[in-house]
Amino acid sequence: MSASPSPTALDPAPRRPALLRLVRFVLPYRGRLITAGIALVIAAGCVLALGQGLRHVIDSGFASGNPALLNAALGGVLAIAALLSAATYARFYLMMSTGERVIADLRRAVFDHIVALSPGFFDATRTGEIISRLTNDTTQLQMVIGFGISMFLRNLLMMIGAIVLLFVTSAKLAALVLLGVPASLVPILLLGRRVRRLSRANQDRVADVSAHVDEAIHEVRTVQAYVHEAEERRHFAQRVEAAYGAGVARVRQKAGLIAIVMLIAFSAVAIILWIGGHDVLAGRISAGELSAFVFYAAIVASGAGTLSEVWGEIQRAAGASERLMELLDTPAQIRPPTTPLVLPARVRGRVTFEHTRFAYPARPEATALADFDLEIAPGERIALVGPSGAGKSTVMALLLRFYDPQAGRVLIDGIDISRCDPADVRRRIAMVPQEPVIFAASALENISASVRIEASSACIRLSRYWSR
């Protein structure tokens, strides 16, 4: 029999970018996203239309001195504002609610996968690390999928539309604006990668905090029994400070990215305003055209700043999605064979261990069972006794096929359970644990769980007795 591979730590896999792998969770809601996209286009069009309204007000309204034109302009602006607010509501609601739904599906997929992993995985992975990925990382993704991507697309679309209208208004000034676009993209591309790496490090340090909290609270009786509270506080403080340091490093890079992009963008607007002012004085363009141009240039500048900010969040979400995809990519070490044997519907209950040798994957150097033989006849009651570490729990773990032995066989009614579906094996066994397990649920739900176990068609009933 081949030994089960040892569980490994959660390492990045050389696969497609993690954010792209989230597409399968988004595709079921493409109808909602298409509707949100239509609302996004309408909202962006309304904002761009305000610039043309501004030009007409200045050139026609102020220049002509006709109040009726100003009244008409006000009515048009109010109508555009009403349409803009309705489209913005639709976009925001559809994107945010879709983000909530996608993250709920992702959390379910990750949790469904986690509960199917063998205990060997949990021997090598801290519980707090898993909890952090399932909660903190999905929350980070939730903000980006629901809000960040929507803001990114909105500002990108408005920037494209504003650039087109800049050329319509003044090709010379628009060409000057485009000179500043590459200067804005360079820091986004260079610093964005660093923000992503720092975001991943920050999330790892936050996971360390969660893991320490989980371990300290779970073993609080041991901590208090050995008067270890001060030491635990010190260790926890160290992890919190490490998370703080990683977070500050990420924020520093992100703040620098935003500041550089904003400086470049608004410096370009100031220069263009200066050049455009001279053109107005020379009569080459009207005051309304210059006002509209500055309006669109401000959209490009603010859009570049927003894009750089959202890009930093997307990079942070990329780190979170990598950590989640690592969980989903972790294979179960104990899996059903391609063609599993099926145990009888009603087992007789003969249990056999033949020359079994086993060492836990997390401690391969320490043999838990060495050439172990055991024969339990149907209906026989036995007690396994021995000091702590003698292998009593290991016998139960192998019988439930939480692990497969490195040598030897475990049989139920003469059938090697390594050739069976683990779920099929466990359905045939009712275990009474040494300590009762109470789930964080109502009394009725805990009782019904016990009843379902007792109602199994035919079980090998095993009690665990401990003696030194």
Task: Describe this protein with a few key phrases.
ABC transporter transmembrane region fold, disordered N terminus, 4-stranded antiparallel beta sheet, two-stranded parallel ribbon, Rossmann fold, disordered C terminus, 6 strands, alpha+beta
Can you tell me about this structure?
The chain has 468 residues and is α+β, with helices and mostly antiparallel strands. The protein folds into two domains: 18-329, ABC transporter type 1, transmembrane domain (ABC transporter transmembrane region fold), CATH 1.20.1560; 351-463, Rossmann fold (3-Layer(aba) Sandwich). It contains 13 helices and six strands. It has a four-stranded antiparallel beta sheet with strand order 2-1-3-4, covered by helices on one side. A two-stranded parallel ribbon has the order 5-6. A hairpin with a 7-residue loop joins strand 1 and strand 2. Helix 7 runs antiparallel to helix 9 (229-282). The two termini are 33 Å apart.
Determine the strand fraction and express it as a percent band. 5-15%
- Give the proportion of residues in helices: 55-70%
* Uncertain spans: 1-9, 11-15, 453-458, 463-468
Task: Assign the CATH architecture of the largest domain.
Answer: Up-down Bundle
- Decide which structural class fits the backbone: alpha+beta
> How many domains, as an integer?
2
Secondary-structure element pattern, one letter each? HHHHHHHHHHEEHEEHEHE
Mean pLDDT: 78
Oligomer: single chain
Number of helices: 13
From the N-terminal CA to the C-terminal CA, the straight-line distance is: 33 Å
| Total beta strand runs | 6
CATH class wording of the largest domain: Mainly Alpha
Largest sheet: 4 strands, antiparallel
The best one-word shape is elongated
- The largest beta-sheet arranges its strands as 2-1-3-4
Give me the CATH superfamily of the largest domain.
ABC transporter type 1, transmembrane domain
Radius of gyration: 32 Å
